[in-house]
Amino acid sequence: MIQESDIRIGNYVSYFDYNMEESVFVVEGILDGFIYNTGLPRSKISCAKANPVVLDLYQLMKFDFIKGIKEDGEDENVYSLKYNRLNSVHIRFEEGIFQPVTDTPAGLVSYGRPIVHVHQLQNLFHALTRDDLTL
């Protein structure tokens, strides 16, 4: 189950179809406890039947995050996505945890809670950049 207040248009969420196969889809609309997408049965599903998509390294790299290069003095556990000429969004992946980090004069410093689901990463990226993070 996913809370209506936790998602926004453009987020990736999933549901289990009649064959109990997980299907991932993009939120096209949200209204009165329902999530809308033209590819869904009846074009909508209740928030109670929608599930968050668990974030993993494969998905992080599909979003074009690049692993740090040790030879260049970068932390190889930090994945970065450049969103403009000067700035990047950084996520540290250690022991199965995705932790947002930011550049400071002292180096990379963790902030906020760890990210568990794809829609959380998308929402963080949107809050920081005002751009959508899509595949």
Topology:
Elements: E1 12-16, E2 22-26, E3 29-31, E4 34-36, E5 44-46, E6 51-52, H1 57-62, E7 66-67, E8 78-82, E9 88-94, E10 97-104, E11 107-110, H2 118-129
Antiparallel strand pairs: 1-2, 1-6, 3-4, 4-5, 7-8, 8-9, 9-10, 10-11
User: Helicity, in percent?
Assistant: 10-25%
Q: Give the overall shape, derived from the CA principal axes.
A: elongated
Structural class: mainly beta
Question: Unreliable runs, pLDDT <50, ≥5 residues?
Answer: none
- Oligomeric description of these chains: single chain
Total number of β-strand segments?
A: 11
Mean pLDDT: 92
Q: How many individual helices?
A: 2
Radius of gyration: 16 Å
**Sequence of strands across the biggest β-sheet:** 7-8-9-10-11
Give descriptors for this structure.
single chain, 135 residues, mainly beta, 2 helices, 13% helix, 35% strand
Short summary:
The protein is mainly beta. 13% of the residues lie in helices and 35% in strands.
Please explain how this structure is put together.
The protein is mainly beta and 135 residues long. 13% of the residues lie in helices and 35% in strands. The chain has 2 helices and 11 strands; from the N terminus they run E-E-E-E-E-E-H-E-E-E-E-E-H. It has a 5-stranded antiparallel β-sheet. The longest helix has 12 residues, at 118-129. The chain is elongated, with a radius of gyration of 16 Å. It starts with 11 loop residues before the first strand and ends in a 6-residue tail after the last helix. The mean pLDDT is 92.
